[in-house]
Amino acid sequence: MPLFNKRRPKKVAILVSTKSKNRSKSNSFTRKRNLIATRFVSKLNTYKSKILERNTKSRALTQKLRTKLVSALDTIQKSDDCSLCLSKIDLKEPITTLECSHKFHSKCLYDYINKTRDLRCPLCRASIELTSLDSNKLSEVLGLKLKSDAAEANVHTTRAMWVEATAYITRINEDIAYNPELIAVMSRRLERATQARDEAHDMYNDALRLYAIAFEKYYTYMYVNDIDNTRVTQIV
Q1: What angle do CA 80, 129, 221 make, to 5 degrees?
Q2: How many CB atoms lie within 10 A of CB 145?
Q3: What percent of the chain is modeled with pLDDT above 90?
Q4: What would the CATH number be for the domain defined by 79-137?
Q5: CA 19, CA 15: separation in Å to the nearest integer?
């Protein structure tokens, strides 16, 4: 007889091991399913919050547009007539408001200015600044006058810069004259101020040159087209 009996392993042990593995797989699947469900719910909540935010912004924009519309309608009802065409000033056409606060249809006002070359308000006769008008809608003579005025304004600006820089240099030199010990401290500042003065002087000379060109073009046009001097005094 054999010394040891060869016994097969009990099936019970095998069954227990199989059940443990199945339970482990089931738990792993459950965790994955819960994780997927959690992510889905999170994305769904994010999507809902974005929709709510978009709806809130849409309602706010709608309310803003409604307020503007009510305001525009109120303005139309309270607006005056255009004194040039004698029709109601509304939103159908562009409107130009002058410095005196009088409003006109833009087309009416530019037609009036280009025809009469009278740069005064048709109602109160206050002066109209060319710089407040659209140069593209002006006649050629007024466009030349606008360029001449702009060039003249640039002359005054650059000259003021040159005078200010010159006065600053004078003050530095006076400080050094009263206290020579400051020359070591003020030398660098004096150098920069001198450079700024020279640049301002060059800009002033360029502005004078450009103004002379613009002024000549303007008055040459008036002479060639025989524009009445009374109209000239209204423009100048």
Answers
A1: 120
A2: 25
A3: 16
A4: 3.30.40.10
A5: 6
Tokens of 137: 């809608």
Q: What would the two tokens of residue 36 be? A: 């997927």
For residue 219, the model assigns a pLDDT of: 87
Residues constituting the chain: 236
CB 215 within 8 A of CB 151: yes
Q: Count CA atoms within 13 Å of residue 8 on its CB side.
A: 4
The pair of structure tokens assigned to 65 is 């547009």
pTM of the model as a whole? 0.52
